[in-house]
Amino acid sequence: MQLKDKVAVITGSAAGIGRRAAVRFAAEGARVVVSDLDDAAGAETVQQIRSSGHEAAYCHSDVTQVCDLERLMTFAADTYGGVDIFWHNAGTSSASVTSSPSGYHPGITEADWDQQMNVHLKAGFFGARLAVDKMLERGGGAILFTSSAAALKPPVGTAPTYPIAKHGLILLTKMMAVDLAKHNIRVNAICPASIRTAMIEGLLADESTKGIVDGLVKQMPMGRILEMDEVADCATFLVSEQASAITGTVLPIDGGRTSL
Ligand code: NAD
Fold this sequence. Notes:
By secondary structure, this protein is of the alpha/beta class. It has nine helices and seven strands; from the N terminus they run βαβαβαβαβααβαααβ. The protein has a seven-stranded parallel β-sheet, sandwiched between helices.
């Protein structure tokens, strides 16, 4: 029980990595606040957790809205008495489809730029700041950001908005880690690559798109798609007391891709 009695708030936990980790955190003893835009899927995450005899509650929150993030922290405090762990995991890929990783690409719209910066970076900054207010009341805590291997090494063909926003989270991790160490609050980031979520499963299921996944696998020295449980394992460790000496760390979970 690595997270016994901790209160964990996870954004984007109605699906994919966030859902898998929410189930895992709860199994490790945390009381989990599941949060997302998708209320039906969020309720399903809560149902999965409760049906295993663990504790969770759902709070709708659009992370691009600071007022929603405020409501989320208040919900956690009202429901479970505070916040010990905040993981900003919500994210979405860029709407712009580009053929070059150039930062000067004309296909990037203002709306796309704003959306990527808001859902990843603005939400990370304000979400963490609001979580810190609650953590200070409890004498410490752990913050985790989901960045991306694309922030460390943008793949050719990716619109620059996503890697830039995710790279911002890496700087935020380091700056917050230094500022908050004296308050017993640790701040770390993970950088996943090619995780088997619904999107990858969908590509694999269709002969016409299977080649896209093969291309991803070729970029991984380990030569395979990575599993959501492998991300949940790392996240659980980083927010647990087992990682009590670790802050400001940016951990690639990428099968070696960014070492190429
Ligand atoms: P996913 O689409 O399965 O889950 C993302 C969740 O975030 C969804 O439930 C979605 O509704 C939610 N979300 C999106 N916008 C939101 C908003 N404005 N407010 C609240 N919730 C919002 O994706 P995933 O693959 O599980 O990705 C999780 C995180 O991991 C993302 O930050 C993503 O960028 C990052 N990531 C994923 C991979 C991968 O291979 N899957 C690789 C690198 C990074």
